[in-house]
UniProtKB/TrEMBL annotation:
Residues 159-201 form the Pyridoxine 5'-phosphate oxidase dimerisation C-terminal domain. It comes from Seohaeicola saemankumensis. This is Pyridoxine/pyridoxamine 5'-phosphate oxidase. Substrate binds at K54, Y111, R115, S119, R178, L179, H180. Belongs to the pyridoxamine 5'-phosphate oxidase family. Its EC number is 1.4.3.5. The keyword Iron does not apply. It comes from the Bacteria. The lineage of its organism: Bacteria, Pseudomonadati, Pseudomonadota, Alphaproteobacteria, Rhodobacterales. Coiled coil: none annotated.
């Protein structure tokens, strides 16, 4: 077993991730929950973009997006993704690799409802990742949707969550002279037990 202590201590990597995220909420100037989400396209060409991590569940990470976006296409065809979150203020990162599935049930409805009305209407108006002729065209779409959907729009069928079930989670913290601390937690898909290893920086 590795010599984990302090910020790395504990038997549940999701609890450690939650604790680090809570610390970052107090130290980051904004978007402490931003993650760089990485996917691969049909040619194996990697892709990355920021999204907001909305939930750390008992055993998974959840974010929300448009199901017709480029990332959704890549997530749906590969069934796998990775992300990294980096906090400059804490000098720490968490890396996650895993299998993805959609969250398009009551949980997605509840999250959609929790968003501001303008964001809810924006989700309807944006054909995310597809060409747009002008900003004016987008605002016209928003006006059209606002008139159509009113003040209590349903969650669009093309918008919802993705859940990442990790097989690997790495916790990294800055150390003096680039001698950083790294602990990687690995397990097989569907297994409960993690194997934890300290890695060279
Ligand atoms: C800090 C930050 C947070 C973002 N959060 C989200 C998000 O939660 N969901 C989302 O769909 N796009 C989010 N975006 C926009 C994405 O980075 C991206 O532009 C968009 O999802 C389209 O990506 P795609 O064409 O690869 O699908 C965010 C961008 C930034 C910079």
């Amino acid at each position: 077993m590795s010599d984990r202590s302090g910020i790395f201590a504990g038997d549940d990597p999701f609890a450690i991730a939650r604790a680090w995220l809570a610390e970052a909420e107090n130290s980051e100037i904004n978007d402490h929950n931003a993650i760089a989400l990485s996917t691969v396209d049909a040619d194996g060409l990697p892709n990355a973009r920021m999204v907001l991590l909305k939930e750390i569940e008992a055993a998974a990470f959840v974010f929300y997006t448009n199901y017709e976006s480029a990332k959704a296409r890549e997530l749906d065809s590969a069934g796998k993704a990775a992300f990294v979150m980096h906090w400059k203020s804490l000098r720490r990162q968490i890396r996650v690799r895993g299998h993805v599935s959609k969250e398009e049930g009551p949980q997605a409805d509840a999250y959609y409802k929790s968003r501001s009305l303008k964001s809810r209407l924006g989700a309807w108006a944006s054909r995310q990742s597809r060409p747009l002729s002008s900003r004016t065209a987008l605002m016209a779409e928003v006006a059209k949707i606002t008139a159509l959907k009113g003040t209590n729009p349903d969650r669009p069928p093309f918008w919802g969550g993705y859940r990442i079930d990790p097989v690997e989670i790495e916790f990294w913290a800055d150390g003096d002279f680039r001698l950083h601390d790294r602990f990687v937690w690995r397990r097989q898909l569907g297994q409960q037990e993690w194997v934890v290893e300290r890695l060279n920086p």
